[in-house]
Structures are given as C-alpha cells and as structure tokens.
Structure prediction request, 1371 residues.
Amino acid sequence: MAECGASGSGSSGDSLDKSITLPPDEIFRNLENAKRFAIDIGGSLTKLAYYSTVQHKVARVRSFDYSGKDTEQDHEPPYEVSVQEEVTARLHFVKFENTYIEACLDFIKDHLVSTETKVIQATGGGAYRFKDLIEEKLQLRVDKEDVMTCLIKGCNFVLKNIPHEAFVYQKDSDPEFRFQTNHPNIFPYLLVNIGSGVSIVKVETEDRFEWIGGSSIGGGTFWGLGALLTKTKKFDELLHLASKGQHRNVDMLVQDIYGGAHQTLGLGGSLIASSFGKSAMADREFSKEDMAKSLLHMISNDIGQLACLYARLHALDRVYFGGFFIRGHPVTMRTITYSINFFSKGEVQALFLRHEGYLGAIGAFLKGAEQDNPNQYSWGENYAGSSGLMSSSPELCPTQRARSGTFDLLEMDRLERPLVNLPLLLDPSSYVPDTVDLTDDAPARKYWLTCFEEALDGVVKRAVASQPGSADAAERAEKFRQKYWGKLQTLRHQPFAYGTLTVRSLLDTREHCLNEFNFPDPYSKVKQKENGVALKCFPRVIRCLDALGWEERQLALVKGLLAGNVFDWGAKAVSDVLESDPQFGFEEAKMKLQERPWLVDSYSKWLQRLKGPPHKCALIFADNSGIDVILGVFPFVRELLSRGTEVILACNSGPALNDVTYCESLIVAERIAAMDPVVHSALREERLLLTQTGSSSPCLDLSRLDKGLAVLVRERGADLVVIEGMGRAVHTNYHAALRCESLKLAVIKNSWLAERLGGRLFSVIFKYEVPAE
Amino acid sequence: MLKLVGGGGGQHWACSVAGTGLGGKEAAFEVARPGDQREAGCGGPGWGSAGIPDSAQGAGMLPAGAAGRARGRQSAEERGEPVGEGEERRARHPPAPALRLLNRKPQGGSGEIKTPENDLQRGRLNPGPRAAAPAPGMGDRGGRPEHSATHAPGAPADTGAAAVNGLLHNGFHPPPVQPPRLCNRGPAGGGEAAPPRLPLLPELQPQPPPPQHDSPAKKCRLRRRMDSGRKNRPPFPWFGMDIGGTLVKLVYFEPKDITAEEEQEEVENLKSIRKYLTSNTAYGKTGIRDVHLELKNLTMCGRKGNLHFIRFPSCAMHRFIQMGSEKNFSSLHTTLCATGGGAFKFEKDFRMIADLQLHKLDELDCLIQGLLYVDSVGFNGKPECYYFENPTNPDLCQKKPYCLDNPYPMLLVNMGSGVSILAVYSKDNYKRVTGTSLGGGTFLGLCCLLTGCETFEEALEMAAKGDSTNVDKLVKDIYGGDYERFGLQGSAVASSFGNMMSKEKRDSISKEDLARATLVTITNNIGSIARMCALNENIDRVVFVGNFLRINMVSMKLLAYAMDFWSKGQLKALFLEHEGYFGAVGALLELFKMTDDQ
Prediction:
C-alpha cells in the first residue's frame, strides 16, 4: 500500500544491459562539475539528479570612465560590451530505464571530475537493490531517504517553481491537456501516488503531510495481472493493448443485467456492474486487448473511487496523481479523470503533473541539499535542456515516445534571486500572463510556429554577427538552429510539451537555446550602437518637448513612447526595416504610427487623469534598448518625476532580443543624468529607482518577479503600473487585472496580430485602466 | 400485480379476499411450530444447464453517482413505457413506513408506533387522490369470486389490477415502495419524502368481480382456491425471485398446513410444483436448493410452512421460462414477484413465452425488507446475524451471534456480481452510497481466466489452498520490513499481483495461489471502500451480505479483520446466514403486500 516513487520491481531491472551505447555527453550534461547526487530507483525507471555549475558566457556592459568630453565624440560607443564567463547553478535530472543503470554509473564514474561529494541520496523502491552497485561504482555512500518525504518535497517543489506544472485531462478536446496556472497557495492537497500500489497522502504544509490511506490495487496489479492475462510482458505494451480494446466484451454492464430495454434505470446502461463479470459466464476466449482494457478500467475506477472517498473525508478538492501508472499515458489519465468526475460528481479535480516521474528524485536531492537552502531560490525550467511531455498519441509520434522511454531530461536553472508575485495583482490565483493560449488556438499556433521558423535564419545570422571574433560562432549558431528548429517541430506535434504553448514560451525557448550555445546576448552590439545614437538625440528631444504646452506635451510624450516602441528587433516587420534602412529614426517611426483614434484608445481618460493629482509612484516596465527606452521612456519618466511622482523603472535581469537589460539601464540612466538635471536629482534622491525584473524574457510574467522589485513596490506604494511593448502588454498581460491604475501601450508590429485585433500594421494600443472601486 | 392470463385471456383480477385480517399482532409474522413432513417428489423438468453459481444480483454498479438518480419507476414513467408498471409502482406508496415485524420494537425516525389501526385511521381521514378512483380489479370481498372487471379510467386494459393500494391484512403494512432515496450526502430524515399516498380500504370499496370467461369447472376451482385463502392471501404457489447478473435466487414457501379439503382441491400443476421443489435438492444441472438455509415452521401470511431457498445461474433463465411455459404455470393465476435486473431484462420473455406477468420490484427495497424480515424471524431458533470475535487474531477468531434488534444506522454492503453499498437509517430511509464493479463477478471472472476453473465452488476451493503472498508484493518485499513511518506492517499487501510483474515469478506460481490472491484482492478492496463509506457516513456497523460470501469464510474473516484493524476496533463487520437471498425474500413479501393492497 505504500510503495511510491514510481516503484515496482520490474522484471527488466534484473538483467543489466551494458552493451548500450549512450550518447552520454548529451544526456549527462555538465557532469564534470557535478556535485550532490540523488537517485530514485523505481521498478523500471531510474531517475538521477545532480547539481552542477554551468559555465557560460554572458554579455557584460561596463561604463567608460567619462570625463565629460567623451560625449562629444560622435563615434564612441556609450559603454563597453564584453563577453565574460559566468557560473550559474543548474539542476539536472535524467530518467532512464533500469537496464542502463550500470552503464550510466560507469559513465558517471569516468567523467566525474573530483568532487567533494561523499554521499548520494537514494530513494525509491529499488534503491536498496542497487545500493552496493552504486557504492562500488561511484565511491559514494548511499543515504536512503524516505520515499514519501521525497515525493512530497518534489511535488511541492515543482508546484511552486514550474509554471504550468499541473494539468487536467480533458477528453475529446484538442489537445487533451489543460494546464493550470500556479496557485500562490498550493496547500492543502491530496497526492495519490500510483506506483505498484497506491499511496494517498494529504499534504498540508511544506513539511507536514500525512499518509491517510492506500490501496494494493495499483500499477503493479495492472502490470502483474495484465501480464498473466495477456502474456504481454511490458507495461507500455499492456497499455497499448488496452487502448485498442473493448471492455464491454469482458465486463458485465448494467444493461447486461437489466436488459437493453431498461438501460436507463437510473444507472446508465453502459456503466460497469461487474468488472470481468462476463468472463465467468461465457465459455469463450477473450481478446488480449479487451481484457487489458477491462483491467485498466477496473483499476483506474477503483483508484478514482478511493481517491474521492479520501478527498471527501478530508474535505479536499484537489487531487494530484503521480507514479509510474500515470507517466503521461493518456489512456490512464482519461480513465482516472473519468472515474474521479464520476465518483465525485465533479467536486474533485484530478490533476496530473508534467514532471511526476521526477518527484522522488527532486525530493531526494532537496533533502541532501538542505544546507544549501534550495527553497530560498527560485528555479526555472530550462526549455532547451528539458525533454518535455511526450505525445499523447503514441502513433502520432513514436520516436518521441521511444526516446522519452529511454532517456528523458529535465534541467532547472537556479535563479539567483527568488521570484514572487507582483503585489499589485488583483487576484494572483487567477492571474494568467498570456493573452492567447496557443495550445487552444490552432490557427494562432500555426501562425506563430511558422513565424518563429521563418525568423530563425535572421536570429542565426544575428547570433554569428554578434561574436565576430569567435572561430566557432558559425558552428554553434548552426547547432542552435537545429536545436530550436527541433523544439518548434516538437511543439507542432505536441503543443503541450512544456505546458501551455504561448508566444512567450516560444520566445523563452529561443532565449534558452541561444544561451545553450553560448550566444548570451546576440543583440548586445546593436543595443550598444542604438543606445549611443539615442543618447545623442536625447537633449534635442527634451528641448522639443519642453517647448510644447502642457497638453500637447502629454500627447507628444505618449507618441514618443509608442514611436520608440517601434524599434523592436523581435518584430519581423521592423527588423526588416532596420536591417535595410540604417537611417530609419525616431521621426520616421512616428510617421509609421497610426493616427488617433488608435485601435485601443483611452488617451482622453489618461489625459483627464493627468489633470488630477500626481501619482505617488509609478512602476514602469521598459521594453527595447535605444530609442525606445532613451527617447520614449525617459522623457515620460522625466515628466512623471516633474509631477512629483516617484518612478521605479524595471528592466530585464538578463538579455532577451534587443530589450534593455538592467545593467544597460543603469548606464543609460547615468548618461542621461549627466545631461538632465531632473533625472540627475531624482536618481540622487532616490525618486527614480532602477530595478531588475528577475526575468530574461521579452514577455512579462507578473507572478514571477524579482523579490526586490516587489519589496520596492510595496515600500513606495506604487499606484500606477506602465507596461510597454508588444511582448509585455499584448502577448502577455493584456488582460491582467491590477489593483491600481495601469497603462498598457504597444505598437502592433505584426500584421497577423493586428488583423486579429481588428487593426492593421502599426496599430496602437493605448489601454488605460482604473480598477473598479 | 395480479394478473391472470387464463385460457380466455384478458381476465384480470386480484385474488385477494378482503379482509378480516386487519388484525394486530396475531396476524403478524411469527414463527410457527410444527408441520414439517415432506412429501414425496415427482420429478420435474430440468432447470437449465451449465451455469456457474455465483454471487448475487448485479446491484453493485460501479456508478456511485447513479444512486440518487431516477430509478426504474421514474424512468419508466418518463418514457411513457409500460404504463401499468408506473401505475402499479406508484400505487404502492405506503401510508407510512411499513412492514411491521413481530416483536420488533418501533424504531426509525418517526417515533410513531405503527399499528394497523393507526394506518387505517389515516386512510379514513385522508383519502388520497387514488382512493377516489374505483380500484380496478380490486379483490372481491366476502368471496364473490366473479365479477366483471372495472378499470381505472385511462388505465390500459391489460394492466387491470394495477391500481392497488397499500393496506394491511395479515398484519402487513405494505413496505415502503420508494423510500426517500437520498442523493445528497449525509443522513437525512425520511420526512422529506413526498406525502404518502393513502391506502384505499377494500372494505369500503365496491368490489368488482373478477372477469370470467373460463369454463365452469375452471371457475369452480378458481373459486375454491380463492376461498381456501379465506383471508386476504395470494393463491399458491408463493414465490419470490431475485434475478441477478450471475445468479437467480428463488424463495418458495411450502405450506405445511394444507387441509385435506385443500389438498383435494389443489390443482395438479400446483401439487407437482410443490413436490418437485421440496423433494429435490438439485434441479437440472445447475439449480440447487440450499437445504441448510431452509426456514422451518414459518408463518407467512397466516399460513404455516417452510421457506425454501433455491438458486440457479442467470444464464439458465431462459430454460426456466421455457419450463414455466411448458408446465402452464400461467394457469395458476399467480403473481410472480421478481426483483433484480433480470426482472426487467426477462420481463418480456416471461410474458411472451410463459404468458406470465412479472411484478417487478426495486432490488434495494427488496434487499432491505427481506433482510429485516429474515432477521426478525430468526434462523430456526438461532440468530440470523453474526460477527467474528477477535477478528485480528486467527487463533481466537470465532463466529458469534449478534442481535440486530436495533440495526440502525447500518452500512449494508451487498456483494453480488458487483457491489452496492447502502446507508440504512431506518427501514424506509436509506440511500445508495456507492458501489464498485469489483465484486463477486470479478473474483470469479478473473479466477476463470487465470486458473481455468469454471465454478465459484472450484474457485473457492483453490483459493482455500493457495497462498496469496506469492502473488502479491508485500510491504516487506519493498522495504525489507515494516514501513514504520506510516505504520504499515511488512506483511501488508503493497501491490496486489505485484510479484506477477516478474516473469520468473509468473512462471513459478500455482493456480491455487492465483485464486487466493484474486479472492484477497477483491475482498480487501470491498473492505476498504466499505470502511471509507462507513467513515464518511459516520456509521459503525457494516453488514455484509450477498452471495459472494457464500461458502466463503476466507472473505468473511478478511472483512472482519479489515474493519476491525483499520478502524482500530471502531467498526464492526456483521454477517447474515442467508447471505444472498434477501432480495428474493423481499420480493415474496411484496406478494403478500400486494394482496393486502387489494
């Protein structure tokens, strides 16, 4: 009743296969710096976790030492860009079949450069069987960790750190997975772990959980009984059989007892009255498929029923399912979901986890790493290094399924600072960053996937160009192309592979892939140049603005913000222009803008508001480097400061496209301060604060922001949020509801999107919202 | 419903003779003493073939949620189908919680002591809507055997006697037909049921004579048979039937107080049925009379006799119907009260092939009423109900009688082909809590597939010899010992059939072990679900019935153990000697009530 962690003693685990040839460097990545190991050995699968540092290149910007006269020189860049090595922490998880365990241990032994690690945390039902082998091969002492503790720790970890970790299964919808946004409070919940048996655990807090029950009818029953009935040895084959069978040939249904004419006696005629009831009566052969299906129904229904009974007894409505019985198998998820809905009459929600196979390993690792306080950090799934959820239909994508059956990877980057909700979110539990769910919206999905495919050449070119001195840049860029192309193809077939597919996830995946091949900031040079150019224009722009009357100036400031926002290398329509016409400037951009009334236009309301009392503090999320931030955002900031409003300017922590990074913003602000007394004094008096968002994405997830930013927002009592740019205000947050006034502005630089929104290229979104009292 | 489809066809009447029996106690059920001798049998037709005795009716439906939904009555009405059924069932609404049992203290929520007078009073004071209409085919009173049928307006001709009303004779209240089915959670009083429809007193009604188109001789016999009842009794033979998914349960009342005159009048058909049934213990290849369960010297409906318990596989149902046809059973003008899904499934066959109209009854009603009745009369002087003392200690564990005089609330777990779980709060207030499809049918089905066995007996015999720990993976197989953190003993089953994941172990396992593991798996699972239901419903007595428990001491002890162990002694598992027959008994009781109603 208690077995967990995808356990179950498989027959396969007993004979070790040493002959396999691993593509090991692709699987056990960054092994040379690995420290802290944990292993979860289940009945058929082993999950190895290790913590490693990853050395990769980062673009650093450093301010020159200005003596004042440099600014006069036209061709000097405003700051220095250098690529440096940086070490970051990453958690690696590798899942493979037990047959490979010895080969894997050998590989680890050979490649593990000396490490201080002396212990390996082990969990899972199979841990003790391989104890000696592990100790001998790795020269590490095996510390056994409690299976359930590991499982719960792992579950809490993924629920908190991985967006779109949990999903519900919806039959007959395309795709069948519906991902859940992360609820800020994940407790309490019920975890039903279906290993060879079933464990039902109530989890109340991070550390408090209780085993409240179990059942011996679980995955092992399906496997064992299935093997006896069908002579089919492998678990996956059994499931495959089940997916083709007709259970009504074996089960006694209500209508078999009541007769066809009376099938609506209050009990639907097709309901199962007695599992395998027909096999006792009919003197005939039953097909393997039918028996497997009947068995699957029997076990899934039983587990669902027990889960509901326990959920009801403990008044819980969220039940997460884990364990090898689930392992992403749609047919199992379907039957369990059906059962839960049936028995709870919809009151209990059956939730599945993208990384359920890793829970034990993650938990074991966290147990071993307690002194490193892993819970202090936030973690992010690295899309480049993770395999993603496998296909729902094995027929559709057999290679993917086969591959994930052998080696499956999950990588999580440790973020140096914890991420939290923006305190100004109206309802954090219902906040969904993304505007369009591409898993849902097939035409949009097709468009965007194609769009990203078409843009790939340009990105590769840009990446190579960004590292002129590097001999292998072209080679790495090509690898990047292949990797990202592969991801896009995977997503075409399995849009749910990394959770809900969105424009944001496509962009983030691209950033992860670029980083993977050491293109940390392909736009650094472009940004450097554009910042230099824009800084030179700044005084003139300010002079022009200051010459205007108040009301004219307000419109000019907004137009400036919008025109600046045209300069977006991420937008194909713009990057084409920028590539071909280097002279394209601020004024040209203004010409491109749609005339008022804009596509979404609440400018009058905004103007009215400006006539009222100043805001206390504005939080502004900046978008692009160069003209956007310097000639669009800073004049706007300056105006707010003049009104007596404090400003928090939040920029990305890491590079993404040509978005301005926090480091760049510091230099830019410094340079502007040197030219402008308003900005200068505001910086000095801390009325203008620069901060980082904690993100390296061209989009914005307000539920995962740097904790420092959140603290600042609270301290300063921010009462206005300005979100700028297509990525942050349209692809994401367009519908975000805040507790304070908000301004979302963007220029639609994509004709498809413009058309969708009912406008045309360079339509303007100006959305000023005041929360209802 | 009494329907006589005699030679001429279309004769509908109710046979009941109106009543003197509005009596009190003396007419109530009681166990009568002597009268036992068995008559020599005459052979009879076979009962069917090649069947596998198995568990009871398919009451256990997987769907829990279905419990509260429309029941047969509603759906039949909704679909405007057999109107007669709908009528008839509606008519059975009792005035109040019914089925008064001898020597049973008044119980249940109302606190009102039910007496016939009481109900009579109500009937007079509150004539319900139905009382206004002349009851068609109403049983005649004072022995007026023949009269033309009058039908209730709108009632289809062939449902003649449908509009009957609950009234008591012979000390019976009609049982609640549709006691409040609670679909919501938690106990609820019975008070929220629809206002009871009121009984129509036959005495006060014009009694139309039954239609008569038969030959004078037949008429005469018929009259005599009617007269022989003298009280408001159905004509013999008295059967109650429960047609389950796997097994048909039949109870037959054998009158032992037949007078010489009666004997003379007894039609051959009837006599041969009586002799056939009582002089054999096996019928055909698969019919079996459970002699050890026979209730002797029972007084039912004012007659003394023995109650016989017979079962045969549902797959022999067609043979049974065929036999009914061949033996011209319909000429006996009796009503066949039947419950279980088969009552619906085979209704048409009964009508078309054997010219018999089934009186279909709700299986859960029948189960509960039958159970309460059998418990109240006891098992030939011994208690019907028992439990196991020291269930967690195999050496000290032994069967002990249990007094179920005050049975409420109880969780009733009916284990047939599937399993139904009911929470019973009073005799007419219960709800179906849930059910599982893993029941007796699953045990036998899997056993047949795994071991090649063919019968329940075979399967159990193998199971008795087997060792499930070779098949199941135990906690200690995984953890090397107890899993202390969760207080799980090493000997607990972690994964049923878990060892069968390994080919080596699959190849080395015996059929007996597999049978045992199947039995243990199914039993423990039922125990686990029942325990959770008991907790959720806050009930501490769990009564296990159904033919899954027949000759199945392994399961009973396992259930007793599981209830006790996992609840730390808070839950008690109870069992009843007549395991699977309560539905059939309940159906028989309905026969009497129906008659009363007329």
